[in-house]
Amino acid sequence: RKEVEQDPGPFNVPEGATVAFNCTYSNSASQSFFWYRQDCRKEPKLLMSVYSSGNEDGRFTAQLNRASQYISLLIRDSKLSDSATYLCVVNLFSGGYNKLIFGAGTRLAVHP
Amino acid sequence: DTGVSQDPRHKITKRGQNVTFRCDPISEHNRLYWYRQTLGQGPEFLTYFQNEAQLEKSRLLSDRFSAERPKGSFSTLEIQRTEQGDSAMYLCASSSKGQLYTGELFFGEGSRLTVL
pLDDT at position B99, please? Predict the structure, then answer.
């Protein structure tokens, strides 16, 4: 079983739509959680952290459910520029060190 | 440009040849990571350095792979006797200790390897 699992998509949505991505992680020792964004043929970049209480950054809302080991990302009022792959990431403490483990990503395509 | 830089950006080689990639992290970052990414997958952790010490190697890293960070600054990743399955984007990332806890790794643009 993969440590971080995501629906690969693609999610094809019109501009202005609301879209939600889900992610599950297998290791209960995971300490912190993040969403990264990766544009086509570009490097991944941090989008936002995910807190247990839920957090918002503009049109983006992230949620964490530690009991279910489940993370979500909600994008409201989708823009064409939101088209990208969204990577769910967990910070795992293993072997005495922290490292970031990435999911395979969910592809989003926003169309006019 | 003070970001993470990787060289070369693209490498095409024949099966069985050796290749080496270089990564120059952000200068004040003491943590350096190598990841590998194939089409449709997320980055897979390969190895991690804190200063010059290689602290962890993934089981993905076979004996043909070796990484160094001799002076705690730039790093090299060498693949010996390349195989077609080694074809991938090799990503380098760096962070400071505090940034790791905030989840921020700074990635380079990657070195794309094609093994014919």
Answer: 65
CA distance A40 to chain B (A): 11
Residue B1: band (very low, low, confident or very high) from pLDDT cuts 50, 70, 90: low
Residue B98 makes CB contacts below 8 A (sequence gap 6+) with: none
Give residue ranges of B with CB < 8 Å to any A CB.
33, 35, 40-45, 48, 50, 55-56, 91, 100-105, 107-110
Q: Which helix (H) or strand (E) holds B98?
A: helix B97-101
Mutate to test the interface with B, among A6, A27, A100, A107 (most CBs of B within 10 A): A100
pLDDT for the residue numbered A52: 86
Place of tokens 């600054």: B73
Higher local confidence (pLDDT), B103 or B77: B77
Would you state the structure tokens that stand for residue A90, as one six-digit string?
A: 């967990």
Residue B109: pLDDT band (50, 70, 90) is: very high
Residues in chain A: 112
Cβ(B69)–Cβ(B32) below 8 Å: yes
Provide the 10 A C-beta neighbour count for residue B109. 16
